[in-house]
Amino acid sequence: MAVNTSLRFDVFCRVVDNYGDAGVCWRLARELVAEHGLEVTLRIDRIEVLARIEPAIDATRAGQRVAGVTIARLDGECLPASLPDVVIEAFGCRLPQPWLQAMATAARKPLWINLEYLSAEPWVDGAHALPSPQPRLPLVRHFWFPGFTRDTGGLIRERDLFARRDAWRAQHARRDDVLRVLLFGYENRALPALFERWAHGSEAVTCSVPEGVAMQSIASWLGAPLVGNVTRGQLTLEAVPFATQDGFDRMLWDCDLNLVRGEDSFVRAQWAARPFVWQPYGQADEAHLVKLRAFLDRYAQRLAQDAARALVDFSLAYNREDAARIATGWDGVLPHRPALVRHAQAWAQTLASGPELGASLVEFARERL
Ligand code: TRH
């Protein structure tokens, strides 16, 4: 694909909660610059959240350039001298009114794309890339759905990601007599029962927990907050510092099992090509369980039936915070570990032949502009 330096993308992001909104936008913005040579401005309301995942960003500065991305505070007031070619509204975050007015009256209107949340639900295929003419303004907004099929916008995957992953693993041999787990999940009432199972299991488990994650659930098992390393029976819980996004990838690559959440860590765990369990962000009426099932339906399609059953049972016990079923769920998964390892590798490989989100957005923009 030819590099087109003249295209300008502005990405709008409002942080709802946690790190996912900022994390997805930051990853996308970096890729658009690094791989497509675009001029990208990330307009975000809470720069301090971005600074947590990228320490090179100064949370106190409104205008700065890091990794080639211009970072601006989204305050709704300041309009640039000229509008960008493409406006990406992340997760329906609402464009500021002055922007909408300027876009509506511009001689050459920017292409307006709403980047949606990731879902494996089948209806996404039909909704992807649909135009939505605005009732009150002469503007069209396009839905852009990340996803798992050829009919969606795909998933963010940097060109050199697998090569970096494999090189890292080749250089960092690990002990194979310890099961390494990364726990990046929400608070979960089933965690103490899972820890108890691991502590009394037949193999050593080291569970790394990025600082601030599931603190109450962990403290309720330990009887105190986790500081440094704590070993009980076969389980060592290890607090690890929050990393950059690239550092976080390396943590995933280093582990045998990744307990991930939300959106971005969920995708990165799939690229790590190791077994993982997903905890979607909790929603009213258990809508997150619908999302979980939709994903597991796809993911488990090519798994042997008994392995698929075990993965689904464990995932449901974990996501329902079902302390009574989590230990049997774990015991059910154990015999299928080799099959789950092979499947995770095959899944990553197959998924990588599908669309890539940054590239699909750029292609769409080039067709329209
Ligand atoms: O933080 P999250 O729970 O974000 C969620 C989801 O995006 C969810 O869809 C959204 O509705 C909700 O926020 C408001 O999980 P997620 O999506 O995995 O994002 C975490 C980001 O943090 C990801 O980009 C990886 C990054 N990260 C680091 O860079 N370093 C770290 O050490 C860790 C633990 C995470």
Give a written overview of the molecule.
- By secondary structure, the protein is of the alpha/beta class.
- Helix content is 40%, strand content 19%.
- It contains 14 helices and 14 strands.
- It has an eight-stranded mixed sheet, with helices on one face. A six-stranded mixed sheet has the order 11-12-10-9-13-14, with helices on both faces.
- It is globular and about 70 Å long.
- It starts with 7 loop residues before the first strand and ends with a helix.
- The model has no long low-confidence stretch (mean pLDDT 96).
- It binds 2'-deoxy-thymidine-beta-L-rhamnose.
- Residues 16-21, 23, 53, 117, 184, 210, 242-245, 248, 261-266, 281 line the site of 2'-deoxy-thymidine-beta-L-rhamnose.
- 2'-deoxy-thymidine-beta-L-rhamnose binds next to helix 1, helix 8 and helix 9.
